[in-house]
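Internal ticket - ligand job 678, adenosine-5'-monophosphate-propyl ester:
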Amino acid sequence: MSEKDKDEVSEAQIAVHWQEENYYHPSPQFSAQANMTDPSIFERFSLENFPECFKEYADLLTWDQYWHTTLDTSDAPCWKWFVGGKINASYNCVDRHLKQHKNKAAIIYVPEPMDEPHVTLTYQALYVRVNEMAALLRDFAGLKAGDRVTLHLPMTPDLPVTMLACARLGVIHSEVFAGFSGKACGERAADSGSNILITIDSYYRGGHLLDHQEKLADSIKASEANGQKIDKVLVFRRYPGKHSSKIPMLEGRDYFIDELLKDYQGKRVDPVSLPAEAPLFMMYTSGTTGKPKGCLHGIGGYLSYATATSKYVQDIHPEDVYWCMADIGWITGHSYIVYGPLALAASSVMYEGVPNYPDAGRPWKIAEELDVNIFHTAPTTVRMLRKAGPDEPKKYNYHFKHMTTVGEPIEPQVWKWYHEVVGKGEAVIVDTYWQTETGGFLCSTLPGFQAMKPGSAGPGMPGIHPVIFDENGNEVEQGSGIAGNLCIKNPWPGVFQTIWGDRDRYVENYFGKYCKNRDSKDWRDWPYFTGDAGMQAEDGYYRVLGRVDDVINVAGHRLGTKELESACMVVDAVAEASVVPISDELKGTVPVIYISLKPNFQASTEIEQAIIRAIESEIGKIARPRHVYIVPDMPKTRSGKIMRRVLGSISNRADVGDITTLANPEVVEEIRKMVQED
Ligand code: PRX
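stdout (structure tokens):
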């Protein structure tokens, strides 16, 4: 193992701190109604039946033209699914339900303020809004199939309406989480080549109407600095007809969408019939370098995978009220608030605000009022609600049949509170492991017939064949207790197609390490590397231990350490920056920043504050560090590499290990004192 790999694994293993737990079984009542109770699905989706097995998923969709080739590997490892097929995602999520479900709630929107009523968009209402928006995008904004458009939208129904309007035209939407800074949005807009930006004047969070349009100037500036002019900015208004931002509109560039829509009232736009492998959307995520990667997802493969997993893992039936309390600005919201549930004609709840506004009983109050029976959230939120209101769920009259956790490992004691108190001992829980890149779940139990094990994600999904490789590409044996690099042996329909504009990086990052033959067109030569460390127990369940690359998971949000480090460099005084994750009771991990200054600069709180401000404006408040330490020097190897592992150990009060080979071992003790005696 090289020194680099040793560093990485030790960082990743911060998460390994609990034992294997006992099983919990789904109740007979749950199993009796579950969408999937047939264990032979794993036979049908065995590697021998790959890739044809995925026909079963594709057949959940309505195809304009049926496909002839399940998996085309001719451009390996850029996989093409269901080739020959023609399809439209907006048609599949809206139009095809009108005949039977016109009056059914598609989206139930809960604004954050307690005095604003819920808004229900029936499938008919959604159809009308999506069509009018599609007409506006086509005829006013000039968008057509294959164009990219950047959305910087929070959790109001405008967001899914816009996504589905884009999908109707074949326009590739790129939604940037509203909590990201204007600059982060502008950089992504430039990378995707969007000349249209869609935003909103304001939205509620934590009891405040935030002025979101304030971020626009930075978006435009960053986009133009990166060579992309924004021709038009389309602005939703939180209260149509009333401008809730202090930022004036720029004539000839900025337009209120509610005013433009008057010209498109009653307009209908035929869904554009697109090749199955045409892109549906892109979503930026963090990686090893400072530059976020635009993960491109294709229509037929992605939609069939999101739909099937919504059906079999989320167990959504037509009469269920399903609430995923994620933000649509992340992949979870794309797959499991919008595309998967709506393709199944479900009623999908979306909530504007924070879970603890005005108090930690809010989610349970919403569940009671709407009779939510499927609930989906991240461990960070569960930990926060458990701390802020451990007895709140008991006060509300709701019953969940099913609950999900996603995005981070969940500690068994937190899992048990979720099960006993939130789920009232009645709900099954699925711990779903996946990534922005994977489109849908990789590992989870199938809730109708597989036992749950707190702290473990579960086995591979049907048709997903995980494997743990050591550094040399040897398979680590099931039940050996040894951690390694978690990979997937085969492609699957939900996997992303490439990184926008950077195929080489796609090949290198995800396949480079374990590809046996780069000229091969055989999928068996191209195992997918997740970037996570994992361990497989005797029973076949996987435990995900954390990232082995320079990615950290803060409150379920994925951030690149390099992105944070380069944000620090914006401050003139900074010579070097190093970011390490430290364990946090609520957020899982949070970043801590170590800084060394250029000569002639003195450490000061002003510099610390400037660094925090730089991180907020370069990335967003979610990346705010716990501490900024200005150190006399970074611990370095003799070749000059910063030993992040040493900084990580100091921050987490762990043993720093052997430091005698460092170029400057004496600085380690100085830093330790500064941090641990702080
Ligand atoms: O490290 C894994 C962790 O989150 C990463 C993916 O982050 P992102 O692309 O933002 O997608 C999050 C929502 C799908 C993974 O590489 N992760 C995700 N789910 C789990 C998890 N870690 C442990 N258990 C999980 N269930």
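Auto-summary: The chain has a mean pLDDT of 94. The first helix runs from residue 3 to 12.
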